Amino acid sequence: MKKSKKAPQKSEEPHDDLDSEEELSPEEHKKSLEKLKKIDPDFYNFLEENDENLLNFGEDSDDNGSEGEEDEEKVHEPGPLKGDSDESDFEDEDAKPAVGKVNLKLVSQWQAELQSEGKIKLPTLTTVIKAFNAAMLRVAGDESSQGEFKVEGSSVFNAVIQMCVLYLPGAIKKYLGMEQSGKDPQKCKHFIKIKGPLMSYLKDVLKLLSGVTSENILTVLLKHLHQMSVYVACFSRISKQSLKKLITLWSTGEETVRVLSFLCILRITRNQQTALLDLVLKAMYMTYVKNSKFVSPSTWPGINFMRRSLVEMFSLDLNAAYQHVFLYIRQLAIHLRNAIVVQKIENRQAVYNWQYINSLHLWADLIAATSNKPQLQPLLYPLVMVITNTIKLVPTHQYYPLRFHCVEILINLSKESNTFIPILPFLVEVLTTYDFNKKHKKVSMKPLDFSCILRLAKSQLSENGFKDSVIERVYALLLEYTANESHNIAFPDISLLAVLQIKQFLKTCNVSNYTKKMRQLMEKIEENSRFIDRERSKISFALNDEKMVTAWESNIKAKGTPLYTFFENWSKINKIQKRKKVSKNDETGVELPMIKRPKILDGDELKTNKDKDTGPMELFPSDSEDDTANFKVSDEENETKPKEKKLKKKKKNKNKTKSSKESVVQEDVADKEDVVQDFSVSDW
Predict the structure, then answer these.
(1) What residues contact residue 402 under an 8 Å CB cut-off, 6+ apart?
(2) C-alpha separations of 235 from 105, 232, 238, 418 in Å
(3) Which of 236, 330, 389, 394 has a C-alpha 20 to 30 A away from that of 164?
(4) Helices marked H in 418-545 — which ranges?
């Protein structure tokens, strides 16, 4: 204690001397230091260890001028500040390999520890998580914030990410002892110890997920997040952040990304259902409505997927779902009431749009899917009333596509919920209110496709394709609905009015193609009515006995009815024709203008054309859809080539198409193999 007191007292003396440094010469200063060495050797040793510049005063400086003295001051002043801080830290980092730069050898060592069969140690997990955080800092370009580790080079970065994605979830599960029990992580003994590092790791994963645009890397990260979703549900704030990002990917990503995002949403929500379900249902429904505003052949699959996945989410808890479904159906009904009461374009547009129709489709699918449970069945009647009054709002020819969409929803709802809905009047009304004998002003090469439109333009109404499409849709929907009701004990009574109106249409219509189709349908309906009459004449129970009627209808349905058998055969053929239209859409566009004759070429012209054919342009590509060479051929060239030559060339190119298919498949496999190893800095 005495020595420690003396040191500060004596330290004031040299500092006093340093303050009056301008008055002392180097020789005098040196003498005073020698005197200090004799008087207090301990304090002199202290200065010698901590500040050698003070004791070597004047040796390295110039003897003359005030410039040397100023340099000496500069050398001395930062001495006490720098002595024990920065330089010693860097020396320690170089000395210890576990702290500082991460290399591949270190990553392989951590990876072996994560894969070890013995117990997983907490320091290993925290070290790996810190290395992952260092990799994220490198991605963000944040060099100012310094952690324990520093990741440099793309190979090291890829190795760290791969290690965490592949081996960290299993190691955490093993550390918590969840391999066999599968219990809640929060109930595990060691969860408190790993809670902090786990939270920081999940935050880094979400940052990485937000900054990635590559589909392959998103797929890998979403699979990893699905494994970690059990731990995500342990932190409410991280759960909400991750759900927000996942809902965005669920609604806007590619097909695989959408599916994986939904699986993550489902797992996180189920692990924390009471706290998150209401928020998730509301957010997902609003996102569905927002992204179903525009419908096209390219957006249909995504909208259908969102609708089906929403049905799954609402089915998790039907009691909680009832509150949401009731509220949203009520909103649809209010919009419809305003459109009926206030006859303005704005109010009609609030109903006659894709968002409204897709919402009706969603709630109909949900009620149909849960028809075996009683919670949502009270909402069936109000939903049917909203749909039927939507059809009646503007019952003009322009809105026939919207009518057909609503009828499809009602047919599916009636079939799945086993409930009778009077749909036939909405279909037969089309036959009786529109004059199909009217001559068309324009000729269209093929019928109009009503699948992605709600309203027709006036120019489309004057095309012959409009009438063809209307008859096709009425025929298909009438057949489907009557086939679904063909086992009903009251089928002859249900279909009587429709049969009478079809007969009236056959009398007035002069177009043979239309009358032929509708006559065939009418005959099948009458045949089924006679079949039900014969079976009904054999019953011995009262018609007000619901149980016996239900059992009789089930027996007739199991046996099969003539109309349903015809519908099944027609449906198979119709599906094949639809597939052909989709697959050969480009071919039909090429083969239609085959009326043009090829030009007769001279010998010289043929030679020049043959030389041209050897280039990247193929004049006779194979008809295989997978052959990528088809995309290189222009329509004009295909139009001028005779069909026979095309068939001959097709045989020759069979082997080429096979090899091209194999090469494409090999390239796809090579691209998709081991996506984690293909990480590069440019992808982030």
Answers:
(1) 352, 357, 390, 391, 454, 455
(2) 34, 6, 5, 44
(3) 236
(4) 424-433, 458-461, 464-484, 491-508, 512-536
The confidence score (pLDDT) of residue 253 equals 87
Indicate the CATH number of 99-302 among 1.25.10, 1.10.3470, 2.60.120, 3.90.550: 1.25.10
Q: What is the DSSP letter of 675?
A: G
d(CA 177, CA 172): 9
Among residues 144, 213, 204, 143, the alpha carbon closest in space to that of 168 is found at 204
Domain ranges of the chain: 2-78, 99-302, 421-582, 588-683
d(CA 532, CA 140): 73
Q: Which two tokens stand for residue 511?
A: 């177009």
Q: What is the mean pLDDT of residues 283-306?
A: 93
Q: What does the pLDDT look like over 75-104, one tens digit per residue?
A: 434 333 333 333 333 333 333 344 478 888
> Which pTM value belongs to this model?
0.69
Q: Give the contacts of 181 (CB within 8 A, at least 6 positions apart).
A: none
Is a pLDDT exceeding 80 seen at residue 555? yes
Burial, 61: exposed, middle or buried (Cβ in 10 Å; 0-12, 13-18, 19+)? Answer: middle
Q: How far, in Å, CA of 345 to CA of 339, rounded?
A: 8
For residue 27, the one-letter residue type is E
pLDDT score for 578:
77
> Contact at 8 Å (CB) between 268 and 232?
yes
